[in-house]
Amino acid sequence: MALSVEKASSGREYKVKDMSQADFGRLEIELAEVEMPGLMSCRAEFGPSQPLKEVRITSSLHMNIQTAVFIETLTALGATVRCCSCNIFSTQDHAAAVIARDDAAVFAWKGETLQEYWWCIERALDWGSEGGPDLIVDDGGDATLLIHEGVKAEEEYEKTGKLPDPSSTDNVEFQLVLGIIKDGIKVDPKKYHEMKERLVGVSEQTTSGVRRLYQMQVNGTLLFPAINVNDSVTKKKFDNLYGCRHSLLDGLMRATDVMIAGKVSVVCGYGDVGKGCAAALKQAGARVIVTEIDPICALQALMEGIPVLTLEDVVKEADIFVTTTGNKDIIMVHHMKQMKNNAIVCNIGHFDNEIDMHGLETYPGVKRITIKPQTDRWVFPETGTGIIVLAEGWLINLVCASGHPSFVMSCSFTNQVIAQLELWKERATGKYEKKVYVLPKHLDEKVAALHLGKLGAKLTKLSPEQAAYISVPVEGPYKPPNYRY
C-alpha cells in the first residue's frame, strides 16, 4: 500500500485497507459488547464524569474487534485516540474500518510489511506540533521502544552531530527503527524529547513488553512511569491461560484440516500460555510433551501427567510444535529440517522470533508453497519432505484465527482502562515515578467481580468474625499481595 495518510469525513486521519467494511465491523462490535461486561461497566461508571476528557492516547494493540470495543470505551470516557496494530498480520480490516470511520485515527491493515508496520507506529505517535500523546497503551512495547530509541539518538546527535546508522545492526526491524529516527532528526531534532516531556505514562499489555520495561528500569533508562497490566491476575491468568486454551485450537483448525486427536504435540514452555495450550491439546486428544527450562514449571507439567523432554528428544517424532516462551530462537532451522513430513510448526508466544523464520527463508534450495495466506509448506531440498509453518512465525491465534474471545479480552482491557485512569488521575501527585508498577489487589478483584454477573455467579459474603479470623477486610482484598493464584 502507498504510505500516505487519508482523512475521514470527520477530519480524522487514517490508513486502512477497506472503509466499506465499516458496517460489518459495527455489527461485530455490537455482538462483542455483550461479551465484554467489564468494559461496559467502565462506561457506565466513568462515562458521565469524562475523566479522560481531551486526553491524547496512542494505542498499539492488535487491531481487532475486541480492541475496537476497548478504543470506544476510552473515547466514551472522553479520550482522543490514535491507534495502530502491534502485529503485521493480526488486524481485522473491518474493525480498523469502523474505528477509523466512527471513533479514532487508525493506521492498520492485515498483511503489513515491516516497513509499513513501523510507519503506522510513527503515525500513531504523531499528534502534530504539540509533542505527542499524553498516555500510551502498548502491547509488546514497540511504541515505547521507538520513543526511547528516539530520545537516545537525539541526545547523541546533540552531543556529537552523529545520526543513527541503520547499517550498524543486522536486525532488519531495528534497521527500520533507526531509519525512521534518522529521518525524523533531520526534520525535528527534538521530536522524541518533546514526546517524552508530555508523556504521563504507559500501560503495557504483555510479557515481552513488560520484560523490556523492567530492563529499562534496572538500567535507569525508563523515561516515564509504566503500569504492568500483564501481571494483573485477571489479565495474566485469564488472557494467557484461558485465552490461549481457547484460541490455539481455533487457529490450528482454521489453518489446517489436521485432526489433533492422537497426534504428538510439543509445547515449548509451560508458563501460563503453555499451560493453556497443553490443556487444550490434551482435551482435543493429543499426546502432549512439554519442553522447559524452569524446574518448577517442569514439575507442574509432570503433576498434570505431561512428560517433560528436550526438543532434541522429540523433534523427529512429533506432529505439532507450539512455541509459547516469549523468548527467542526456540525452534531453529536445523530442528525443522529433522521434522517428519508435514509436521506443523507455530508460535503463540510473542513476536516472531521464537521460530527461526530467517534461517528457514534463507536455507539454500528451500521451497515455499503457500497453501493459503499464512499457511505455508516449506520443502527441504535434501529430503523432498516439508513442514507446515503457520502465521509466518507470528501469533497463530491472532493471525490464523480471530484472537482471544471477547469475554477474556474484557478482563484484560478492563485492567487497561483502570491503568490509564490511574496514571492520568495521579499525574501531578508524584505517586508514580519512572518505574514499573502493578495494579493493587483490590482493583484486580474489582475486574473479576465485574465479570461474574455475566456468568451467573453469586459470591458468598464473609461475616465480620470470619474476616477477622483470616485477617482481611469484609469487602476485600481477600488475598495478600504475594499470593499466587
Automatic annotation (TrEMBL):
Its EC number is 3.13.2.1. It comes from the Eukaryota. It holds the Pfam family AdoHcyase. Pathway: Amino-acid biosynthesis; L-homocysteine biosynthesis; L-homocysteine from S-adenosyl-L-homocysteine: step 1/1. Keywords: Hydrolase, NAD, One-carbon metabolism. The keyword Mitochondrion does not apply. NAD(+) binds at G271, D272, V273, G274, K275, G276, E292, I348, G349, H350, N397, H404. The keyword Hydrolase applies. It catalyses: S-adenosyl-L-homocysteine + H2O = L-homocysteine + adenosine. Binds 1 NAD(+) per subunit. One of its GO terms (molecular function) is adenosylhomocysteinase activity. Coiled coil: none annotated. Residues 240-403 form the S-adenosyl-L-homocysteine hydrolase NAD binding domain. One of its GO terms (biological process) is one-carbon metabolic process. Belongs to the adenosylhomocysteinase family. Adenosylhomocysteine is a competitive inhibitor of S-adenosyl-L-methionine-dependent methyl transferase reactions; therefore adenosylhomocysteinase may play a key role in the control of methylations via regulation of the intracellular concentration of adenosylhomocysteine. This is Adenosylhomocysteinase. It comes from Ilex paraguariensis. The lineage of its organism: Eukaryota, Viridiplantae, Streptophyta, Embryophyta, Tracheophyta.
